[in-house]
Specification:
Number of strands: 4
Radius of gyration: 14 Å
Oligomer: single chain
Distance between the termini: 10 Å
Shape: globular
Helix content: 25-40%
Strand content: 5-15%
Number of helices: 4
Strand order of the largest sheet: 2-1-3-4
Structural class: alpha/beta
Length: 127
């Protein structure tokens, strides 16, 4: 993962709090600190609904396989919030969130990459 955009600007990464790590286990700072250590010169941003007030991606409740009869899918709602931060990339720490956010980015026809924080750390260690 590069540390800056093609234009030479600092990369901005939006982090999505997973329900399992965050609300169920009260772990919010460790994933952010992991990203900061792996990418020390990157701007890390949170969407308005984050940490213990974060919005679920929808997968944990089995909504991954459901069609919404009305309104928009929860992963689209969350993806829109993450994209609205203006981030160059979205970081997650859950395989369910990875799937839901990736599907949301595709549905929004965006080219913002969705990365697991383990991928970010592995890429930095490989350098």
């Amino acid at each position: 993962m590069p540390l800056q955009t093609e234009e030479g600007q600092r990369l901005t990464v939006a982090y999505h709090d997973s329900c399992y790590l965050g609300r169920y286990n009260d772990i919010y700072d460790a994933p952010r600190e992991t990203l900061r250590r792996a990418l020390p010169v990157v701007n890390l941003v949170d969407p308005p609904r984050s940490r213990d007030r974060g919005l679920c991606c929808g997968a944990g409740g089995g909504r991954m396989w459901m069609e919404e009869p009305q309104g928009k899918r929860i992963n689209i709602e969350r993806t829109e919030e993450l994209l609205a931060t203006g981030a160059d990339a979205i970081a997650v720490a859950c395989p369910f969130c990875m799937t839901m956010m990736s599907d949301g980015v595709k549905a929004k026809e965006s080219n913002v990459p969705v990365l697991d924080i383990a991928e970010v750390v592995a890429a930095r260690l490989a350098r």
